[in-house]
Amino acid sequence: MSSPLPPNVHVSKHPCLRAKLSQLRSQSTNSRDVQTLVHEIALMVGYEALAQGLETKDDGTDHSPLSYEYTRVTITPSSISLVPILRSGLSMIPALSSLLPFPVPVHHLGLYREKTTLQPVEYYNNLPYHRPSASNPSASGPAELAIIVDPIIATGATACAAIETLKDWGVKKIIMCSVLGSEIGLRKAASEWAEGVEIWVGGCDKEIDERGMIKPGLGDVGDRLYLTIGK
Predict the structure, then answer these.
(1) Pairing mode, if any, of strands 214-215 and 207-208?
(2) Pick from 125, 123, 121, 105: nearest CA to 113
(3) pLDDT-based confidence at residue 135 (cuts at 50, 70, 90)
């Protein structure tokens, strides 16, 4: 029997999510349904993650349509960035964006796995490293909270690279939301910055194969989303 996952890894037990994940595994699920299922699972994982990762604060007063005064409520921290791992992480952005009560910046990280070593290679990074200054007051520095979205955590190497990049950028906390992870990948990602990262996934599989693919897994989610299988 395998040992429990680290305390900063959270696997959903929602029965509807588990049923949707089973549908997503099927090779007969077409690209349009893959997009829909990833979106729906991202909503459910994101809902659970943000319920634990955010807090509320009073934000002045307003009036209802019947002119009754009430106390407005917003979330904290107010400085949040969404960080999709290209390319399949883009499929989860609409779900997470819809859960947040205000628009937040989206900063893209492009990472791919080198075929022989399975190590991540960064090919794109649009994090705003310039901080506000007298000469450039509109510049934006690191967010307090970064929400990484990537459907799969397989070997964990890509997740670790993204976490390290965001930690170096200066974020105070990271929430990572994924559809599926492997046990080894989740353990590796969770240990990269244990005190600063919380990982939320829809499901967990025990094994990965020699190609770094999860067994039974979901296949290559990016290829299934964008109809590039065999490219």
Answers:
(1) antiparallel
(2) 121
(3) low
**What is the C-alpha separation between 1 and 68, in angstroms, rounded?**
58
- Say which residues have a Cβ less than 8 Å from residue 138's Cβ, sequence separation at least 6: 132
DSSP 155-216: SSHHHHHHHHHHHHHT-SEEEEEEEEEEHHHHHHHHHHTTTTEEEEEEEEESEE-TTS-EES
Return the residue matching tokens 């890894």: 9
Find residue 181's DSSP bridge partners.
153, 204
Q: How many CA atoms lie within 13 A of 120 on its CB side?
A: 21
C-alpha dihedral sign at 207, 213, 216, 217? positive
Return the structure tokens found at 132. 């506000």
Predicted pLDDT of residue 140: 66
Write down the pTM of the prediction: 0.91
The three-state secondary structure class of 35 is helix
Q: Would you state the pLDDT for residue 139?
A: 56
Which tokens in the block code for residue 87?
A: 């390319």
Residue 102 sits at φ, ψ, to 5 deg, of -150, 155
Residue 90 per-residue DSSP state: G
pLDDT tens digits for 40-90? 999 999 999 999 999 999 999 999 999 999 999 999 999 999 999 998 999
Place of tokens 């799969």: 152
Cβ atoms of 145 and 173 within 8 Å: the answer is yes
